[in-house]
Amino acid sequence: MKLGFVTDSPADLPADQIERYNIEVIPAILVLDGQPYLDSIEITREQFYQRLPTFRQPATTAAPSPADFASRYEKLLTTGCDHIISLHTAEKLTSIANIARQVAADFNNQITVLESGSLSLGTGFQIEAAAEAAARGLNLESVLEQIQSARHRVCVGAALDTLEYLHRSGRFPAAVTLLGSLLNIKPVLDVREGVIRPLGAARTTRQATNLLLNTLQEHGPLEKLAILHTNAPQRASDFLASLRASPACPSLPEQIPLVNVTSLIGTHAGPNGLGFAALKKEPVL
Amino acid sequence: MTSKSIDGLAVKKLVEAGLAWLRTNQQTVNALNVFPVPDGDTGTNMLLTMTSAYNEVSNLGHHSAGQMIAAVAQGALMGARGNSGVILSQLWRGFSRALHGQDVIDAPALAAAFAEARDTAYKGVVRPVEGTILTVSKDIAIAANLAIQDTDDPVEVLRRCVKAADESVQRTPEFLPILKQAGVVDSGGKGLFFILEGMLRFIDGESLEAPLISVQPLSAMNLENAMDDVEEGQDWEVVVDFRPQSGFELQAFYNRLEEMGTSIQVGEGEGMYRMHIHTPLEKRYEPIDYIMSLGTITKVAMENLLAQMEEIGNQAGTTLELTNIEPGQIAVVTVSPGNGISRIFASLGVAAIVSGGQTMNPSTKDILEAFENLPTDKVIILPNNKNIVLAANQAKEVTVKQVRVIPSRNIPQGLASMLHLNPDGDLDKIAEKMIKALESVVTGEITVATRSVEIDGVTVKEGQVIALLNGTLAVASDSLEHACMEFLEKAHASEYELITLFYGEDLKHSEANHIADLIREKYSGQEVEVQEGGQPHYQFIISIE
User: Fold this and answer.
1) Is A285 within the bounds of a domain?
2) Nearest residue of chain B to residue A179 (CA atoms)
3) Hey, are the CB atoms on A203 and B545 less than 8 Å from each other?
4) Quick one: which of A278, B112, B150, B281 is 20 to 30 A from B364 by CA?
């Protein structure tokens, strides 16, 4: 049985992985001053942040069209796949998974639609785990188990530089306690089961970075790790350097990419944000 | 009272006498302030603690001495304010413990009670400091123990204790160099002395009233708290500065003023006099006309106290959106000195706010009442002042709720700590994080010196603007701007990221912004944030992080 994989651009899957496992990536849509753009295709992340301060209206996002899903599914099924796993950004944060489900209903149980409960590489690591398992020849059931296992082990944290964009998006009720703050606050958040929760808050970038570092270190040995940022490559590489230099540094994977996350997250998080996506090692029994 | 023992009714009389004599000497104790800053006055704190203690027994009839003291101790506990007030309440607690079940107090029982009082007070403080009220309580206990070797008269024991307390207070600067530097003795010890001396004066039939006429130095005039005792019908406050002609007679002056109003205070400095009085509406011009006949008036200030009180009431009533706490969540109770600061704390998720700070230390009871009715049993207290930490700890002792006190010594520390609250977290872990956050911020407090002094190597003239860096006197200057800039330099602000200015009630937003702009000019690498603090007496509270 040959498995095909579909995900979305907010999963932030690196190009080499997309290519290696032949993963179909559905671009989310950014609406910038009333004009729709396909995420990462019609506007690069760098371009997005460059234009961010000049937008007359706050940037918003839109879900991809059902037709886009249908054509990807058909393409995979007609090129030899027997079954498709369509794994998407947390359904509590976007409607992408919902649209996928609606489209998949027309495909006679050939498509399993899942939502990651996470975002960025929190989703990406799950689809990677699935694709790796399939490449090792595991059957559908075992691959789904791998996704379940990865879903429980991913963690995503972020230190935003400002509450402004999160505030505008109105999307994160759990962070609400911080939003009313009269002080300028840099919130530190994590994402669990699609819910964005405040882990703490800082008044300065340094405090926020330290808080994020402590949060990451509490997760123990890591199988995969990516340092995420919203157009702040220097902040990301500094963070990685201090992580490696930390005496409490957990065991880290060899490759740790620095990822300028999807503009979709950028619209809600604002620029100069820092974060991580990690996949914890399976506990050795 | 027999000559050899003290019964319950006598205990009540003695407590009343101690309270009366402390009240008479309240300003003397208040003046014993090490730092020249307006802060929680020890005399006032101890007086309020004693008042609460006496109120518990004022209506009690015949009871045993042990029962009477137990009631006094309970009243002191609930009314305890400031560090000295809390220690005073612990002295009463020990006293009461030793006398439990006693019908009357004889000499040995009195000595034992002083010893237990000392032990209880020492145990109540994490790191006892000598040269304070604790040392005085220790010397009293020693003197009592020695006295019972050669007398069985409790009055004689008390007499020797008063003498020992007096000597002990005089020795306090030998233990605490900071007292010596400031040229004062320990205020809490002095307050304790006055309480015991008042009891002895009562027994000896001496007056517990103040000498009728007194002129205090201008700097000692405390008009800030005059609002606290506005009497009905006396709702205008008149303050007149004047230079009397020769032949000015104080006694006659007082006599005449007493016909016009109450709360009379007269201060003098370098030939300049200041008169303060509360009068009814129709008499508000009389003091001015009268003083005009005595000399040259340089300044008159007149305020409608009732209207002001209403305003304060209204301000306090402005809607603060406090966080609703669910059962099982952690509720934070914070002490705040101003409306602006209260709003900021509220926006960060505190569940209850107790008004207070430097100049008005809330009592154990005030703090307790703030959280007793919250629908959770997990409570974190942010005292935000070193002189409120003990009262907060005491509130923790008397409640069944699980309470953690974060020993925040100022507002910036309280705010830094607040950022680490997770109401759904583990109480101990959250408290640990909040305590750790205290040291993440550098604090500045900018105020006007209440007297001239040389301390911590800084020479301060009364009326100068001074800056405290993490509680230590760092800068004295003739201008607010200059004091702020020099403070930031001393605090190495250029090595930090963010400077936040909380401006006090005496400054306008535009004045605060003007100084913020000067700071931005010099500290271009730092962010500068301006917030309305609304605190009294302190032009700025500054946080650097």
Assistant:
1) no
2) B347
3) yes
4) B112
Q: Which of A180, A200, A207 sits opposite B347 (nearest CB)?
A: A180
Domain with A113 in it = 3-152
- Tally of helices (H runs) and strands (E runs) in chain A: 11, 13
The number of residues making up chain B comes to 545
User: Closest residue of A to B440, CA-based?
Assistant: A207
Which residues have CB under 8 Å from B38's CB, separation 6+? Answer: B224, B358, B359, B447, B448, B450, B536, B537, B538
pLDDT of B514 reads 95
Q: How far is A200 from chain B (nearest CA, A)?
A: 5
- Kindly state whether residues A128 and A167 are assigned to the same domain: no
Token duo for residue A253: 């994977």
A26 in the same domain as A137: yes
**Residue A81's domain is classified under what CATH number?**
3.40.50.10170
Bridge partners, residue A6, by sequence: A24, A86
Pairing label, strands B472-477, B465-469: antiparallel
Interface of A with B in 127-146 (CB under 8 A): none
**Radius of gyration, CA atoms only, chain B:** 25
Predicted ipTM of the assembly: 0.75
**What average pLDDT does the structure give for chain B?**
88
Contact A114/A84 with Cβ under 8 angstroms?
no
Inter-chain CB pairs, A–B, below 8 Å: 44
Long-range contacts of B317-322 (CB under 8 A, 24+ apart): B320/B346, B320/B353, B321/A180, B321/B346, B321/B347, B322/B346, B322/B350, B322/B351, B322/B352, B322/B353
Neighbouring residues of A285: CB distance < 8 A, sequence distance ≥ 6: none
Which residue in chain B has the smallest CA separation from A177?
B349
Q: Do β-strands B453-455 and A29-32 pair in parallel, antiparallel, or remain unpaired?
A: unpaired
- What domains are defined for chain B? 5-203 (1.25.40.340), 216-310 (3.30.70.260), 318-440 (3.40.50.510), 443-544 (3.30.1180)
pLDDT greater than 60 at residue B227: no
Q: Does A179 reach chain B within 8 Å, measured CB to CB?
A: no
Instruction: Based on the fold, state whether residues A20 and A140 are members of the same structural domain.
Output: yes
Q: Which residues of A touch B529 (CB under 8 A)?
A: 183-184
pLDDT digits (tens, 9 = 90+) for A98-146: 999 999 999 989 999 999 999 999 999 999 999 999 999 999 999 999 9
Residue A67 sits in the same domain as residue A147: yes
- A109 and A193 assigned to the same domain: no
